[in-house]
Amino acid sequence: MSKQPPKLTVNLARLISHLQLCSKTQNLSRAKQIHSHLITNNFHSCPQTTTSLISLYSSLNLPFDSLSAFISSPHPPNLFTFNAIISSFASNNLPDLALDYYNILRLETVLAPDKFTYPCAIKACTSLGVHCDVQKIHGEVVKIGLGSDKFIASALVRSYLEFGFIDYAQKMFDELAEKDVVLWNSMVNGFARKGDFGNAVEYFRQMGSDGIMPSSFTLTGILSVFTAMADVFCGKTVHGLVVKSGFEEGLSVSNALIDLYGKCHELVDAVAVFERMREKDLFSWNSMISAFRYSADHGETLRYFVRMRHAGVLPDAVTLAAVLLACSQSAALMHGHGIHVYMITSGISSSSDVFVHNALMDMYAKSGALADANQVFNMMPAHDVASWNIVIHAFAAHGLAAEALELFDAMCAARVAPDEVTFVGLLSACSHTGLVEPGRDIFQRMEVEYGVVPVMEHYSCMVDLLGRAGRLKEAQEVAEQAKETGVWRAYLAACKMHGKIEQAVEAAERVVGSEPKESGGYVLLANAYGSAGRFEEVEEVRGDMWRKKVRKVTGCSWVEVSGLGLNTFVTGVLDHPRGIEVCGVLHGLVRQMREFGCLYHDILTQGIDQDVEEASATIGAISIRSQ
Predict the structure, then answer these.
(1) What burial class does residue 479 get, using C-beta atoms within 10 Å of its C-beta: 0-12 exposed, 13-18 middle, 19+ buried?
(2) DSSP class of residue 611?
(3) 3-class SS at 332?
(4) PPR repeats located where (predicted)?
(5) Distance from the CA of 342 to the CA of which of 311, 393, 451, 495 falls in 20 to 30 A?
């Protein structure tokens, strides 16, 4: 007499409950222990156990362990088991296998797909881009009477929106008599993913008008829309709805709010949401760190990275790229080097993540550590166009034009197509070293041979190249050809360099005429008048700025001091505890400059009609805020 499978005892029910808990807590080691116990006690032969194991490994992103549990079951799979394995493949980016097992199920004589099978099959077809198979499934579900099922309808709506069949999606939605939050989410989030923000917002409003309470998925979707639109006002309205609906404790919703406020430069609100969160995951920290990076608050970016490490949260590629960018923008070489050490010790440096390696190389390049940048480049397992651009620009910035040109040849030999940024670096390299003819050649070839149409940056480089060489007439012709305001700035600088003050004034007046609301043009014009000794016009320019309410952007710079961390210098702010000492040193420097006669000359060349004492007071207003 054959041994019968064990009955579903209380013990087995408890073990299945433990499996579900492992899935929720992502505890793989405990799951493996329970799986072993199930096999040892011959409980794994129960179809319910097999289904639970498949679902468990699927939630842990281990689809092939799910497949192993499916295959090793001693009994033929039932519909629940088939649905679990199809769902496992569909949700773990294996759509080919999901459709294979869907087709195997369809060949079964005693089993047939149900309302839980079809959504997974539709998702797999969508991932593979086979819209004709989606339409076939649509016809099949209508034929068997499941066309109005909310799960299937939601999957079809999402699929049609993904394929751009908006009319189909809207027709399906309008024809359904009963619309639940899942179906509304399909419309809101479907349009959001396609970048059709107008329709996404409209369906969200209709949803509220129909009295449908949003879910956390709805809120994260609509917050992503307002983030992309930089609409912080509507985002704050949704925040109020989040609080009212009780979703403020939700991790995904809080992360979406931080992302919204961060990208809209509302740092106070972003910090408030972050600090109220009881639980913070990697995405929470990344959103907060990125928020400071968006607002160029490099000190806080680095400080929150340190907090993240102290909290025991391991950074990923997104974190490291954001922090390295902050280091490069503030020339915080010691911080950046420390991150590089962490990458080596954690094994990240040996990965093939080009994005992180590019950020590391850029940090070294912008911090003046050219040898380190070049070493990172040489050790990278793979390069993209950004990798080549970073090191070409690094050589250009250090006046190594020959090396930059050689690297460009190597880039072409590696069959990496150059882009606009590449040619800016090459032309800049030629400009800094006076290579007029090689620069001309590159400028002429870039569109003909490489299909890169010159833009303002390229014209500016050419004007700068010709202007430095004293070929002002040719530089003016290039500026006229460009028809871009920014190019005239380069021409203006060349004119001042060669003492052509009247031409410099003319160029500055062009800039102001094109940018009447920007402070930069006015500053250039005032400086040009000052260089020409026309101080009455300087006062007129300043008066014009005052009348038009044009404000000059506050000056700010950073310096990293060993033992003192990153320090920020802000014009007109005096709040550092050692600010008096700092100002004393600066006043001493001003006095020495005055004694050697260089300060007054600098005032004249900059067009600042103020006496030495006023200049000293201005410099003394700069303070250091220790980061």
Answers:
(1) buried
(2) -
(3) coil
(4) 180-214, 281-315, 353-383, 384-418
(5) 393
**Residue 526: CATH number of its domain:** 1.25.40.10
Q: What's 74's DSSP letter?
A: S
7-12 long-range contacts (CB < 8 A, ≥24 apart) are: 8/46, 8/48, 12/43, 12/46, 12/49
Q: What is the pLDDT of residues 183-194, one digit of tens each?
A: 899 899 989 988
Cβ neighbours around 474 below 10 Å, total: 17
Same domain, 549 and 581: no
Angle between helical axes of 472-482 and 485-497 (0-180°, round to 10): 170
Cα gap 146→143, rounded to integer Å: 8
Strand positions, DSSP E, 439-521: none
Residues 6+ apart with CB under 8 A from 542: 522, 526
Q: What is the pLDDT of residues 120-157, one digit of tens each?
A: 999 999 999 888 889 999 999 999 988 888 889 889 99
> Do 519 and 547 fall into the same domain?
yes
Whether residues 548 and 560 fall in one domain: no
Q: Do 534 and 572 belong to one domain?
A: no
Which residue in 394, 402, 403 sits closest to 372, CA to CA? Answer: 394
Angle at CA of residue 584, ends 580 and 588, nearest 5° = 170
Buried (b) or exposed (e) across 336-369, using 16+ Cβ within 10 A? bbebbeebeeeebbeeebbebbbbbbbbbbbbeb
- On whether both 545 and 593 belong to a single domain, the answer is no
H/E run at residue 87:
helix 79-91
Beta-ladder partners of 567: 559, 626
Pairing of strands 565-570, 623-626: antiparallel
Domain boundary pick from 494, 529, 553:
553
Enclosing domain of residue 613: 556-626
The position carrying tokens 């005892």 is 9
**Single residue among 553, 569, 598 that ends a domain in this structure:** 553
- The rounded mean pLDDT for the chain is 82
Identify residue 389 by its one-letter amino acid code: N
pLDDT in tens, 500-532: 777 777 777 776 666 555 666 667 666 766 766
Is 571 inside any structural domain? yes
- pLDDT at 514 (0 to 100): 64
Q: Is residue 87 one of the residues assigned to a domain?
A: no
pLDDT value of position 481:
85
Strand-by-strand arrangement of the 556-561 sheet: 556-561, 565-570, 623-626
The tally of domains found in the chain comes to 2
Q: Is residue 472 part of a domain?
A: yes
Q: Do 490 and 522 belong to one domain? A: yes
Q: Percent of the chain having pLDDT more than 70?
A: 82
Quote the CA–CA distance of 622 and 129 in Å, as a whole number.
Answer: 59
Q: Quickly list DSSP for 499-546.
A: T-HHHHHHHHHHHHHH-TT-HHHHHHHHHHHHHTT-HHHHHHHHHHHH
Residue 544 located in a structural domain: yes
- 587 shares a domain with 513: no
543 burial (CB, 10 Å; 0-12 / 13-18 / 19+) is exposed
The mean per-residue pLDDT over the stretch 544-564 comes to 61
Mean pLDDT, rounded, for 302-315: 91
